[in-house]
Design a protein that fits this description.
About 5% of the residues lie in helices and about 40% in strands. The chain contains three helices and 60 strands. The strands form nine sheets. The protein has a 16-stranded parallel beta sheet that branches. A hairpin with a 2-residue loop joins β5 and β6. The radius of gyration is 26 Å and the shape is globular. About 55% of the residues are buried. Keywords: Signal. InterPro entries: CBM56, GH29D-like_dom, Pectin_lyase_fold/virulence, SACTE_4363. It comes from Kribbella ginsengisoli. This is Chitobiase/beta-hexosaminidase C-terminal domain-containing protein.
């Protein structure tokens, strides 16, 4: 981020905040039996089946006990029909239609007890109805682990269609092998298939992965008190404070320097057993600091956990304070305040700050944004010179400051929504959330991993009124990944049914890591870094329930990968609302350390995935020869194809086309921070196929009918060629159910411009690093 004039500290009148909070509460209330005012509760559609029939579909975000559709426009008068549930979607077929028939329809649905009515919708049969899509092929038996070869049947429910398939994991086309009968799967492989019918749209890709051999019997022979490798420091309260402090200082001196440590391979974790410590931990690059208690108060630091503008080369700013974390501790700060002046990829989770929290450098220089979750701060949290920030499911004594985009959800003590002056956006609750899995020691001295429960409409820290709800997994069910482990050994552990615990280190992969088992936990400490060496995708997660991935850094290799992390195969369709996959503190880097290449960093094909704090970054600086328009290439940071995906804390920067492309229905984003690529060489090389200037940072697919986002900022700094411009930062379909709130654009130091904020709305970015704001769209 590029420094801009420092903001003044703003004071707020209590009556103003109270009135705003009251208005927000009234506007967001849904009454039993009333009209559902938020289309994010559901998606609905009507599809023409033939000349005389159409199918009405309704997919609730939260599973419903019943859905009734009411419609008029047929010869029978008003009809009231209990819909039929299949695969999470309720459907009803309406017959007796002719071209031009207009159907007026609406729904009544149950949600967690109460009943709601939707607004009325209209559908005209024939003429303008888009082509019907062939149903996605399905497989019998389903993909999974089998002891012997399987005979697999592929089918589609669309009569008269043909099926084309591949068995090497590639995407099938109209020229792929024609399916004519059951196929043999003698060895481990992935089968992909599409349905094709003349006059209809080709289906999405159906996929099934088969592991042939021994069925996993569970993870065995893993110790409950494992060896966490040479880069993990474990401190005991019985150790002298001087001994602990000496180790902390040694690690910090090795990890502190922005010029030499930022792209180094050293990785460190500081783990504190339950007890009290009088120490001061300055946190450098690639360092995780965490308590080993089951709750934050089990480890008490009488001192500080600090990040600041430590180096002379920083010149008093914290714009490059990346890749460091603090988690699961209480801090009684020296002098009453703890300083955490960070930029991206520096999460602050499950912390109990018994005093004030300062998110800016001691010099009051700039910092470029961060993330807090599941935390309590008894005093004031002050952002001051922080350019943007997101706080989720936490409790604050008070808040002060704000530059461009400060966002809160489920955070008592947060300021009311006042965007753009001050630039603060607050949601009373977080729609769906789940705290991170974390390591702790039980009363018998054995290590375990705690997996918190799913929360809906959460507010406040999960442990605010006692222990965090959830379940505990013994370390005997984890394979501890350490230096010397290969992709083969890691995959063998996954096949055996193990969870993964990555210790601090850099891991080169010559094959994809395949996470195929539901509820697998992949947990890293000390920024373990995964590098694909030969163009493979670093990790693939199957379309299964409840996988949890936390604390990994994916670094693109020198041979281009199609993706670094993929969740669900193309065409995934299962509903995971009750037990979603979660990606938390998962970071991606293209270049900077090595000259990396990956077309897309993260692809999400599964439904209901929670993306909770990611930073996907194509480097704008780093080691010589590792960054630049041709040295580090990547089109897109995040591609979402799944439905009902939620992103809370989304940081994506510098990719060469759209930073985020969102094709799934029912998506939500709470907080988005973006910088367009700095290094565009000329306008012609960056224009869209349509001819418009530049690529939008956040693109919602043209066929999406429901999407909502809050608190989004996109900035440009075209320093290689300041004549470059982008037509807009956000591009979305013009649909009443595609809604954006609290958006801003900024031209940093006026190096090029963004002409509009969203679609054709919003003014051109002016000189002076001044934001252009749009409060709501449409």
């Amino acid at each position: 981020m590029i420094p801009t004039p420092a903001p003044t500290r703003r004071r707020r009148l209590r009556w103003r905040a109270a009135i705003a909070a009251l208005v927000l509460a009234v506007c967001s209330t849904l009454l039993v039996g009333g009209v559902a005012t938020a289309a994010d509760d559901y998606t609905q559609s009507v599809t023409s089946l033939n000349a005389t029939q159409a199918q009405i579909a309704f997919t609730p975000t939260t599973a419903a006990l019943y859905v009734d559709v009411h419609y008029t426009g047929t010869a029978q008068g008003q009809q009231n029909v209990r819909m039929t549930l299949s695969g999470g979607t309720w459907r009803t077929t309406v017959s007796g239609l002719s071209s031009g028939t207009v159907i007026d329809y609406w729904f009544t649905y149950e949600k967690s007890g109460p009943q709601y009515d939707t607004p009325h919708f209209s559908y005209t049969h024939g003429g303008t109805t888009p082509p019907q899509t062939v149903a996605t092929p399905t497989f019998s038996p389903a993909g999974g682990n089998y002891t012997s070869a399987q005979t697999v049947t592929i089918s589609t429910s669309t009569a008269g269609s043909t099926i084309r398939y591949t068995v090497d994991g590639s995407t099938p086309t109209a020229s792929s092998t024609l399916y004519s009968g059951p196929i043999s799967v003698p060895t481990t492989r992935t089968v992909n298939a599409i349905g094709i019918k003349s006059g209809l749209t080709t289906s999405a890709v159906g996929s099934a992965s088969y592991t042939i051999g021994s069925v996993p019997t569970g993870c065995t022979t893993q110790p409950d008190v494992p060896n966490f490798g040479p880069n993990t420091r474990i401190f005991d309260p019985g150790m002298s404070a001087a001994t602990i402090q000496a180790q902390l200082d040694t690690d910090f001196n090795n990890q502190k320097d922005t010029l030499t440590a930022q792209m180094a391979d050293r990785r460190i974790a500081h783990l504190f057993k339950p007890g009290a410590y009088s120490v001061h931990d300055d946190v450098g690059y690639y360092t995780s600091v965490a308590g080993l208690g089951q709750n934050p108060g089990d480890v008490v630091i009488n001192g500080a956990i600090t990040v600041d503008a430590f180096n002379a080369s920083d010149q008093g700013v914290a714009l490059q304070n990346f890749w460091r974390s603090a988690e699961n501790m209480a801090v009684n700060p020296i002098g009453g305040s703890n300083r955490w002046a960070v930029a991206q990829a520096a999460p602050f989770r499950r912390m109990d700050i018994r005093g004030n929290l300062q998110l800016y450098p001691a010099s009051y220089g700039f910092a470029s944004g961060g993330y807090i979750a599941d935390t309590k701060v008894s005093g004031e949290t002050a952002s001051i010179s922080q350019q943007q920030w997101y706080t989720r499911d936490s409790n604050l004594g008070s808040w002060a400051g704000g530059v461009w985009n400060m966002v809160f959800s489920g955070t008592p003590g947060a300021p009311a929504t006042t965007f753009p002056n001050p630039p603060e956006t607050t949601l009373a609750t977080t729609p769906v959330s789940r705290d991170v899995p974390y390591l702790y020691i039980d009363s018998a001295g054995k290590y375990r991993v705690f997996t918190p429960s799913l929360r809906t409409n959460a507010s406040g820290a999960s442990w605010a009124n006692g222990s965090t709800p959830g379940t505990s997994i013994p370390m005997s069910q984890f394979y501890v990944v350490k230096s010397g482990d290969t992709a083969s050994s890691i995959n063998s552990a996954l096949t055996a049914g193990c969870n993964l615990f990555f210790t601090p280190g850099v891991y080169h992969l010559n094959q994809t890591l395949n996470v195929n088992r539901a509820n697998t936990v992949v947990l890293g400490i000390g920024y373990p870094t995964l590098i694909p060496d030969n163009g493979v995708n670093a990790m693939q997660v199957a379309d299964v329930d409840g996988v949890r991935i936390k604390g990994l850094l994916f670094d693109a290799g020198t041979t281009n990968s199609a993706a670094l992390l993929t969740v669900g195969a193309s065409g995934s369709s299962a509903n995971h609302a009750a037990n979603p996959t979660t990606l938390q503190d998962v970071f991606f880097r293209i270049g900077g350390s090595i000259a990396g290449h990956a077309t897309t960093s993260l692809v999400v094909n599964s439904n209901n995935v929670i993306i909770d704090h990611i930073w996907a970054w194509r480097a704008d600086h780093g080691n010589a020869g590792t960054w630049g328009w041709t040295q580090a290439t990547a089109d897109t940071g995040l591609l979402v194809n799944g439905n009902n995906v939620l992103a809370t804390g989304l940081f994506v920067e510098h990719y060469q086309k759209s930073q985020v492309i969102w094709n799934g229905q029912g998506g939500k984003t709470i907080f988005f921070q973006n910088e367009m690529p700095y290094d565009v060489p000329n306008q012609a090389s960056w224009n869209r196929p349509s001819g418009k200037a530049g690529y939008p940072a956040y693109k919602v697919g043209d066929n999406v009918t429901s999407h909502e986002a809050w608190g989004l900022g996109s900035y440009n700094f075209f320093n290689v060629n300041p004549s470059v411009s982008a037509y807009n930062a956000f591009e979305v379909p013009n649909n009443a159910n595609v809604r954006f709130h609290s958006l801003c654009t900024v031209s940093l130091n006026y190096q090029g411009v963004i002409t509009h904020v969203i679609n054709d709305t919003g003014a051109v970015t002016p000189p002076g690093t001044v934001p252009v704001n749009v409060v709501n769209y449409p």
